[in-house]
Amino acid sequence: MHQLPTTRMAFERDVIAGLSARPKTLSPKYLYDARGSALFEEICHTPEYYPTRTETALLRSAAAEIADDVPTGSVLVEFGSGASTKTRLLLDATPQIHAYVAVEISADAVSRAMARLTHDYPDLLVHPIVADFTEPFDIPDHLLARVQVGFFPGSTIGNFSREGAIDLLHSLRDRLGPASRLVVGADLVKNEEALLAAYDDEEGLTSSFNKNLLQRINRELGGDFDISLFAHSARWNAREQRIEMHLVSLQEQTVHIAGTPIAFAAGESIHTENSQKFTGESFRALARAAGWSVRRSWISDNPAFAVFELCP
Ligand code: AVI
């Protein structure tokens, strides 16, 4: 997920509604302001947060196979491209790719990435699109006419609800067309200890990332959260097979946001993120429900992480 160009009004409306609900929730999309995005980048380099390095190694070893039947002149379309780092593994293995469409919400991130790619891949046509990939956006017709290879790494799919993930995969299928394929990275269920450590690193970066949401509310909505009165909590929800991030109120207290009082009981939590963990079967079922079928998959052993290639 990436920083969204939300207006202050939409942010305020969502925050007040989420904190007035039972249980209290906030959308994970609000974790990614400039500071949250920088903290997430740092989390990716902690020893505990295995997904980034595991997926990178998996893509490196699978890239040649992923590339083997990509038709000459295809277009690679990445959803939430950020710095386009993992993309290079696919581009290096797939010289037959004619163009790269990077869909990214952060104009800054995409313009930096495009400058580097244009320099390093002089024969590749690069086409940045600054957009939220969950909303409609246009790919130019001359690129749409070619075979599309979608790329959605990082297990970002796990931050959506099941219905949200189905809607998203469905819309990507409509956008990419009937001759396309979609390469998706998805984190897999594994031992609870490793999962909990990944979302509660020793250095406290994930805790800062989570608490930054309260600081963002203070900064942007004039809230009066005392951050020291909330604790970061990462929980494994075994029934739903997901990691949940919460912010737990350490005492009974009332916080004010844009003039609205929000009461907290001691121990009451704000649910800020779900990170779904899949099995091969649960991911297949999700893809099927969105009109895709899994054509091939690559799975790393320990820690377990998967790259799925989907076909319509
Ligand atoms: C972006 N997303 C896939 C991350 C995840 O693992 O769910 C977000 C994250 N939250 C805490 N740490 C990382």
UniProtKB/TrEMBL annotation:
Pfam family membership, one: Methyltransf_33
Keyword check for Amino-acid biosynthesis: no
Class of this enzyme: transferase
EC number: 2.1.1.44
InterPro entries assigned: EgtD, EgtD_Methyltrsf_superfamily, MeTrfase_dom, MeTrfase_EgtD-like, SAM-dependent_MTases_sf
SUPFAM superfamilies, A to Z: S-adenosyl-L-methionine-dependent methyltransferases (SSF53335)
Segments forming domain Histidine-specific methyltransferase SAM-dependent: 11-309
GO MF annotation, one: L-histidine N(alpha)-methyltransferase activity
Domain of life: Bacteria
Biological-process GO terms, alphabetical: methylation
Alphabetized NCBIfam families for the sequence: egtD_ergothio
Protein name as it appears in the record: L-histidine N(Alpha)-methyltransferase
Gene behind the chain: egtD
